UniProtKB/TrEMBL annotation:
Keywords: ATP-binding, Membrane, Nucleotide-binding, Transmembrane, Transmembrane helix
Residue ranges occupied by any ABC transporter domain in the UniProt entry: 371-616
Transmembrane helix recorded as keyword: yes
GO molecular function ontology, one term from the record: ATP binding
Keyword field contains Nucleotide-binding: yes
Pfam families, alphabetized: ABC_membrane, ABC_tran
Lineage: Bacteria, Bacillati, Bacillota, Bacilli, Bacillales
Sequence intervals crossing the membrane: 52-72, 88-113, 178-205, 273-296, 302-322
PANTHER family: ATP-BINDING CASSETTE SUB-FAMILY B MEMBER 10, MITOCHONDRIAL, ATP-DEPENDENT PERMEASE MDL1, MITOCHONDRIAL
Name of the protein described by the UniProt record: ATP-binding cassette subfamily B protein
């Protein structure tokens, strides 16, 4: 629930409007003025210091420009109209028009500059985050929700816009506006200025209090809304609907919905009323303030202490005092919500990649393909929601695994679910590093090699191969960017997939993947094999699909595999008897340990676990 709320809070911060302020307040809850974070956040603005200085001058000009019309109006009334001097009236009227044009132009400049800074800082952060995420290991992504990461890179960063416009520019322009207004008021008439300032608490305090009450209600509304949304999406989805009907939960579901429905209704009525009272109060005050001004100011005019123009000027200045004061009173919320946002961004930036790059670069296909594991132990780091308590015993996914795979050998990893087969396979391309022990490629410690050169030596056929939403050609070219059409077709022929691709609507130019043309499981596997063939690595890592396939597809895959394995070192998580029979060596794993190594014949009647797997799990082709 908390995570969802964080997501929502992050999601909405880019926009403007009523809910936005609530979300900022929600984010700011429990936050404090964390100076190191504020300093680090400001560092991102350093490259744009010239723009920042310029924008400060522009804000100063807008603030001063905002009070000038009040002074000009006073001049028109007191020096022009009152003294019947038309030339003065014309002069100051023109000045009024020019000021309006000038402030309009300056405000455009301000918007342009502040957006330029915000968008640049945002683009910098997006790039830094994306680059940083590219350096993370696969298990980093396994332990996080994809949606959360996407939201950090998009929404959290988008919220930086808010930091610039609301927090920095807002703070500065409100402060300067108030200063300019007060200066103007006190220089016109200090007595009236004091009266105007006395009225301030009447404006600011109720707005603050009612604002807080509204936000608390809004928090409750959001909570009930989210409960309702969860219930709706669960109960109106096929699986949920099925579950509800099987367990006869319709009545209970209705009761639950009725409760959130009623709560929402009551809360929203209350929220609407709170708003009404505030508007009534503010409406009243925005009339009472000027009324008091007119009353007292009128007395001063009658006693010849001020001109009529001063009162008129004061009434326009009043709005320039109360609005900014109100906003300034809320600035701590936007500062704190910005701190919370940057804290989230920095937390992500500070996660060190689990796998560090080595220095030694080996040319592609220069290795023999010997893989050696020496006393390898591995435990998955616990992160996020799955974080284990400090004193919890380490859960080893691999325990003291020692194994040598000779060049050109085909090795099948077998074992029950959770035995550690995938974990072992993932250590070879360094998707993760062993917690203890060493892994060698041709006698070289894999940690000493650069990740790029290490990975270019090996091809991977995962259990459920993934293709980008792109053409077949571009998905194939991931393996070899300069592959010619002929090379690609040759690889696809060898992998028994050419005919299938040729028959697609646009042949090799058909878009496949996520929302493109859906290839079947067997087709995906063969296309993945073609991709590895194109890459032509010395080492092949393969996670065989568990699903049963029909005879034709099965034969096609076996033929494709036969080509793939020729002259290469292969480590396969095997599920099919035919694959296992073809391998030179079978490694039997259980609970993270290697319990036996041998051929099918040496194991089948001598290793009880292997015998059991053989009898129950290995899929025998029809
Ligand atoms: N990302 C992860 N985070 C934490 N634990 C994990 C992670 N992936 C796997 N494990 C745990 O590590 C152990 C070994 O898992 P692994 O996936 O290597 O087994 P496997 O033999 O490949 O199983 P299967 O045949 O079901 O895929 C299991 O206990 C599993 O729960």
């Amino acid at each position: 629930m908390q995570e969802m709320r964080e997501l929502r809070a992050g999601a909405g911060l880019g926009g403007h409007g009523g809910g936005n302020r609530w979300q900022m307040r929600e984010l700011a809850k429990g936050e404090h003025f964390d100076w190191p974070i504020i300093r680090r956040a400001l560092e991102a603005f350093v490259p744009y210091w010239k723009h920042a200085i310029l924008v400060s001058f522009v804000i100063l000009a807008t603030s001063v420009g905002g009070v000038v019309p009040a002074w000009l109006t006073q001049q028109i009334i007191d020096e022009g109209i009152d003294k019947r001097r038309m030339s003065v009236v014309i002069f100051f009227t023109l000045a009024l028009i020019l000021t309006a044009i000038a402030t309009g132009l300056i405000s455009v400049l301000q918007t342009w500059l502040s957006n330029l800074i915000a968008q640049n800082v945002m683009a910098d952060y997006r790039m830094t985050l994306f680059r940083h995420l590219q350096r993370q290991t696969v298990s980093f992504f396994a332990s996080r929700q994809a949606g959360d990461l996407v939201s950090r890179v998009t929404n959290d960063v988008t919220a930086i816009q808010n930091v610039v416009t609301t927090t920095i520019v807002g703070f500065l322009s409100n402060l300067l506006s108030i200063a300019a207004t007060l200066f103007m008021m006190f220089s016109m008439n200090w007595k009236l200025a004091v009266l105007a300032v006395i009225v301030v608490p009447g404006f600011v305090i109720p707005t603050q209090r009612v604002g807080r009450a509204r936000q608390e209600l809004q928090a409750k509304i959001q909570e009930w809304l989210s409960r309702m949304t969860v219930q709706l999406s669960e109960s109106l989805g096929v699986s949920g609907a099925l579950l509800i009907r099987i367990f006869n939960r319709q009545a209970a579901e209705e009761a639950q919905f009725a409760e959130s429905n009623a709560r929402l209704r009551d809360l929203q009525v209350r929220q609407a009323l709170i708003g009404r009272w505030l508007f009534m109060w503010l409406g009243m005050f925005s009339s009472i303030g000027p009324a008091l001004l007119w009353g007292y100011g009128g007395w001063l005019v009658i006693h010849h202490q001020i001109g009529l123009g001063v009162i008129v000027a004061f009434t326009t200045l009043l709005s320039r005092l109360y609005g900014p004061l109100n906003q300034l009173a809320q600035v701590h919320v936007s500062v704190l919500s910005s701190v919370a946002l940057f804290r989230r961004i920095f937390a992500l930036l500070d996660t060190e990649p689990e796998v560090r790059d080595g220095d030694v670069s080996i040319p592609p296909n220069s290795v023999q393909g010997q893989i050696r594991l020496e006393h390898v132990w591995f435990s998955y780091p616990s992160t996020g929601e799955a974080k284990a308590p400090q004193d919890a015993p380490v859960r080893w996914a691999l325990k003291d695994v020692s194994l040598t795979i000779e060049p050109g050998e085909t090795v099948a990893l077998v074992g029950p679910s959770g035995a550690g087969k995938t974990t072992l396979l993932n250590l070879i391309p360094r998707f993760s590093d062993a917690s203890r022990g060493q892994l060698y490629l041709d006698g070289m410690d894999v940690k000493s090699l650069t990740l790029t050169s290490l990975r270019s030596q090996m091809g991977l056929v995962p259990q459920d191969p993934f293709f980008f939403h792109d053409t077949v050609v571009n998905n194939l070219r991931l393996a070899k960017p300069d592959a010619t059409q002929a090379e690609m077709e040759a690889a696809c022929r060898a992998a028994q997939i050419h005919d299938t691709i040729a028959a697609l609507p646009q042949g090799y130019e058909t878009v496949v993947g996520e929302r493109g043309y859906r290839l079947s499981g067997g087709e995906r596997q063969r296309l993945a094999i073609a991709r590895v063939l194109l890459q032509n690595p010395k080492i092949v890592l393969l996670d065989e699909a568990t699903s049963s396939l029909d005879t034709v597809v099965e034969r096609q895959i076996q033929e494709a595999l036969a080509v793939l394995l020729q002259g290469r070192t292969a480590v396969m998580i095997a599920h099919r008897l035919s694959t296992i029979l073809k391998s030179d060596k079978i490694v039997v794993m259980e609970k993270g340990r290697v319990i036996a190594v041998g051929t099918h014949h040496s194991l089948v009647h001598h290793n009880p676990l292997y015998t059991r797997l053989y009898e129950t799990q290995f899929q025998v082709e029809p």
